[in-house]
Amino acid sequence: MKNTKQYRVLEIFFRGLRGEDISVKKLAEEYGVSEKSVSRSIGELKAFLADHRELVGNTEFEYSYQSKCYRLYMDEFLSAKELFALLEVLIGTKSFSKLELLAIVDKLKRFTASDDRKKLTELVSKELYHYTEVKHDCDSVQDMLWHLINCIHDKKEITIGYYRMDRNFVTHRLCPASVMFADHYFYLIAFRADSDMSSPLYFRVDRIKDITVHREHISACDTPEFDEGLLQQRSLLMWPGKLRTIRFEFTGPSVQAVLDKLPTAKIIERDGSKYLIEAEVYGDGIKMWLLSQGSWAKVVWPEEFVTEMRGEVQKLAGLYSL
C-alpha cells in the first residue's frame, strides 16, 4: 500500500499540511522508488490543486532552491505576524488555565509555515513559562463557557451555583442571554427567571461552580432585546448600574487613552491641555476608573454624579487621615 502512487500523493499532501519540508530525495529513499517517481507524484498533486481552486483556494506546493525542498502554502495558513499578535492577546487575557493555553498555542502554530514555528516558539516561550492564570472555581473555563453557549442556543432556563465577590456561595435561576469577554474575564449576561427581566445581571464565568439545566424553555417574547456590542461600549469593568451621560474634565498626558477606554466618549471642549469629555456609560465601573486617574479627572456633570464622586474622594482622604 505504501508504495502505491495514490498513497504517495495523499501522504505528500498531508505532510505538507503538517508543515513538513518535502524532499524528493528523502521520500524516494523512504519509499524505495526513484526520484522521478516522487517528482511525478508531486506534479500530479500540484496539477490537482491548480485545477480545483474553487475547493482548495490558493493552495500550492512551492519549491525552495535554498532548502531544495517543496513546501505547501495556503491562504488558510496564518502569517507569522498574525499568529504572534494572536498569541500575545491570548497570553494577555490570563483567562485560560496554563494547560488549556499551551494546547491552544500548539494547535495554532500548526497553521503557520514551518520555518516560522521555531521563531514564534522562542518569542513567546518566556511569557508562557511565567504565565499566571486567573484563578477560577469551575473545572474548566472553556467547558463552562461552551455549556452556557449551548444553553443560550437551546433557550433553556438554568440554575447556577455561584461564588460571589465576597466568596459566599449562592444559587440563581436564570434566563441566559449572552456571554462576552472583558478585562480578563468571560461574563454570562442573564435575567432572573423568577422576577422582572428588565435589567440584565452579570456573572463571571470562572466563578460558576455548576449548572443545572431545566426543561423550561425561554420564549422570545419573555426575553428583552439585548445588544452585547452596546454594553461593551458603555460598560467599564462589567459593574451593574444605571445608564447615564456624564461629563468630566481631563488634564492627563493622553486624552487618546481616555477615548480608547470609553468608546462613547467625545471631546466637547478644549482649553489648552484641559479637555471636557462627555460619555454615555452603564454601571458603576466608571467611578472606579475615574478614581484611578487621580487628579487628572474631575467630574463636572450631572450634579448627582459629582456628589457621588465627592463622597468617594472624602472616604479616600479619610483613609489617609487628611
Helix content: 40-55%
Which consecutive residue ranges, at least 5 long each, have pLDDT under 50? none
| Largest sheet data | 5 strands, antiparallel
The CA-CA distance between the termini, in Å, is 85 Å
Number of strands: 11
Can you tell me the overall shape? elongated
The helix-strand sequence is: HHHHEEHHHHEEEEEHEHEEHEH
Q: Structural class of the secondary structure composition?
A: alpha+beta
Spatial extent as radius of gyration: 28 Å
Number of helices: 12
Question: Can you tell me about this structure?
Answer:
With 322 residues, the protein is α+β, with helices and mostly antiparallel strands. 43% of the residues lie in helices and 25% in strands. The protein has twelve helices and eleven strands. The protein has helices spanning 5-17, 24-31, 35-51, 53-56, 80-93, 98-109, 114-129, 141-154, 228-234, 255-261, 285-292, 303-319, and strands at residues 60-64, 69-73, 156-163, 169-182, 185-192, 201-204, 208-217, 243-250, 266-271, 274-282, 297-301. It has a five-stranded antiparallel beta sheet with strand order 6-5-4-3-7. Helix 5 (80-93) runs antiparallel to helix 6 (98-109) and helix 5 packs parallel to helix 7 (114-129). The model has no long low-confidence stretch (mean pLDDT 84).
